[in-house]
Write a structure and sequence with these properties.
Chain A is of the alpha/beta class and 152 residues long. Chain A has helices at residues 3-13, 35-44, 104-115; strands spanning 18-20, 26-29, 52-61, 64-72, 79-86, 93-95, 118-120. A 4-stranded parallel sheet of chain B has the order 1-2-3-4. The two termini of chain B are 26 Å apart. The chains are: A alpha/beta (152), B alpha/beta (187).
């Protein structure tokens, strides 16, 4: 499927999606309430069988926090990028996709560890790279740690 | 005259003052033959523990490969169990999550044990000294180190030089003096 066909399909499933222009892959910004059912529909439907979650990362755009998903279909070769964002920095919360793609379990743990974004219904939400008792989320842009970091 | 290493002359080594200081601390007795034999055996057969966390591990593997072979110096095999190892070569970055594991491995090694800190990250935190939230700035925050080998990564010849310095350090030990007392002044 070409980028145009993917765009039509996404806009059919979720009319409020925002399609981003002039990118290499088909990129869409999805509102957070519709994300989980869209992801399930994309994996299960026959013409866009997105069974491979390539990457799941977090981005800190002051003042919003965003999570980016790269999906690929091993059957057809389609590639799509989905994004969802929130402007709540104190208690950001998204729905997990680890029941759809199991690899998301560790990726979401990394996003929680470094950005502080909680994923509801996640089976095992704890830190993965930093120490268990560490306070703070290192990859946020307003992160300051006076004890461990020597600034330069 | 100092301790003898077969391939290099005494004055080609750089840090002879520390070695002389260590020898004076041991008392100015002539070394007994028993000490010499024990030290000869210990220094020419140090078997390391397999411990390589990052890129310096590749350089350590290159030192152990056929071009610069460190089994010529007595490092015949690597032992996977810390109880059977003599030296731990800390090749790589020590992160905050790895530090308790390193301490536990060092505690499990049996005496006499030695530590070589290889590479800039193990010596002082290296390139991660500034602006890093997860790196321990130097392995000597965790365990006492005998020989520091700087470099990023150190060339195989540099690591071999570090091994030779460790051999000289072992050769001036006295068996009857406990090694812990010897370490306390130099840590």
């Amino acid at each position: 499927m070409t980028n145009e066909q993917l765009k039509e399909k996404i806009l059919l499933l979720v009319p409020e999606a925002l399609a981003l222009e002039n990118k290499q892959y088909a990129e869409f910004l999805i509102p957070a309430e519709k994300f989980h059912e869209l992801a399930l529909a994309l994996r299960n439907s026959e013409d866009t069988a997105f069974d491979y979650l390539v990457n799941l990362t977090g981005v800190d755009l002051l003042p919003d926090l965003m999570v980016v998903y790269h999906l690929k279909s091993t059957k057809h070769g389609n590639y799509i990028v989905l994004k969802q964002k929130t402007s709540d920095r104190v208690n950001p919360e998204f729905n997990t996709v680890s029941d759809i793609w199991i690899t998301a379990e560790w990726h979401e743990r990394e996003v929680f560890d470094l950005f502080g974004i909680n994923f509801s219904n996640h089976p095992d939400m704890r830190r993965i790279l930093m120490d268990e008792q560490y306070q703070g989320y290192p990859l946020r842009k307003d992160f300051v740690d006076e004890i461990n970091i020597i600034e330069r | 005259m100092g301790v003898k290493i077969k391939s290099m002359k005494y004055n080609e080594f750089r840090d002879n003052e520390t070695l002389e200081l260590m020898k004076e601390k041991n008392g100015n007795f002539i070394m007994t033959t028993l000490d010499e034999v024990v030290n000869w055996g210990r220094s020419n057969s140090i078997w390391p523990l397999t411990f390589a966390t990052s890129c310096c591990g590749i350089e350590m593997m290159a030192t152990g490969a056929s071009r610069h072979d460190f089994s010529r110096f007595g490092i015949e095999v690597y032992r996977a169990s810390p109880r059977q190892a003599d030296v731990i070569v800390i090749a790589g970055t020590i992160t905050v999550k790895m530090a308790p594991v390193l301490k536990r491995l060092y505690d499990e090694m049996s005496e006499p044990k030695y530590v070589i800190a290889m590479g800039a990250c193990a010596v002082s935190g290296g390139p991660f000294f500034y602006n890093s939230y997860s790196v321990v700035r130097g392995a000597d925050h965790v365990i006492p180190v005998d020989v520091y080998v700087p470099g990023c990564p150190p060339r195989p010849e540099a690591l071999l030089y570090g091994v030779m310095q460790l051999q000289r350090k072992i050769k001036q030990e006295r068996s009857l003096i406990r090694r812990k007392a010897q370490m306390e002044d130099f840590v």
